[in-house]
TrEMBL record:
Residues 55-85 are annotated as: Disordered. Residues 58-72 have a biased composition (Low complexity). This is PknH-like extracellular domain-containing protein. It comes from Actinacidiphila bryophytorum.
Length: 278
């Protein structure tokens, strides 16, 4: 491990005015009906996927993960469990660089923040919609975590060199917890089509669900390189290389994309930290 983000993720991501930097073709958008149908299948099968790039794994990979991409985690509330969030989201609710240092990334990580609208998740799965176009609302907090200093002119939370991008989080508040839960479910279901892809194309793995307390939960999917996709879905038992998570705490909700090549154990720790902070 060299502590730097992985080079050439190849996820076919297109965020806020920049096209995919990898050689991986972006999947076409799915019609709403297809997404809903796929969502039903995905929920039944427990699969929700993130696109891994073809090529070498992320050098930033932290500690190896255990349990594989298909693990399902459910923890019950205890005395130290976080309380569901209320009030507006602030930058204090967003994930910071220290979380990645805790899972083994040693390169200095910078944060770039902005508030407004923009592309919020993996465009290869959700399309190049903005959060406002999908859910409405006054705006969201965007944070980019990166090892480089050059950022996209249209969005400072996106690194010009994708190899510098460690993670990106988009968080906002809903009017009430029930609406935040609805938003989180919709955002998660948008990623379902990327659980299936032609062999050789990156694909998301099964969903892992983490519940820290009532109203405080997250679901994340690991990303798998195209070289590991031999049957159209993520390989069972293989380690992911980063991934995507949808978080919900009370009236707060967020999408976290992890570009650093983290295995299942490290991803679980990052998601737990982000959820506890949200």
């Amino acid at each position: 491990m060299n502590g730097a983000p992985a080079a050439g993720r190849g996820r076919g991501t297109a965020r806020s005015g920049y096209a995919a930097r990898s050689g991986c073709a972006v999947r076409p958008r799915y019609a709403v009906a297809a997404v809903v149908a796929a969502a039903a299948c995905g929920l039944a099968a427990g699969r929700f996927v993130l696109p891994p790039p073809p090529g070498s794994p992320h050098p930033a990979a932290a500690a190896p993960a255990t349990g594989g991409a298909s693990a399902h985690v459910r923890t019950t509330a205890g005395s130290g469990s976080p309380k569901p969030a209320t009030g507006p989201v602030t930058t204090a609710d967003l994930l910071g660089p220290a979380a990645f240092g805790a899972v083994g990334i040693t390169a200095p990580i910078r944060t770039r923040d902005r508030f407004g609208d923009g592309v919020y998740a993996n465009a290869a799965c959700a399309g190049e919609k903005t959060l406002g176009q999908t859910l409405g609302g006054p705006g969201a907090h965007f944070r980019g975590l990166m090892t480089g200093t050059r950022t996209d002119p249209d969005d400072p939370t996106v690194a010009v060199d994708h190899a510098d991008q460690v993670a990106r989080e988009v968080a906002a508040e809903a009017q009430n917890p029930a609406l935040a839960q609805n938003f989180a479910q919709r955002l998660l279901l948008e990623e379902v089509p990327c659980q299936d892809a032609p062999p050789g194309h990156w694909v998301y793995g099964r969903t892992t669900t983490l519940e820290l307390a009532p109203g405080v939960s997250a679901s994340w999917m690991g990303s798998y390189q195209g070289s590991l996709n031999t049957g159209g879905t993520a390989p069972e038992g293989a380690e992911p290389c980063g991934g995507i998570a949808v978080l919900r705490s009370g009236s707060h909700y967020a999408v976290l994309e992890v570009d650093a090549c983290l295995g299942a154990d490290a991803m679980s720790r990052i998601v737990r930290t982000a959820l506890s902070q949200l």
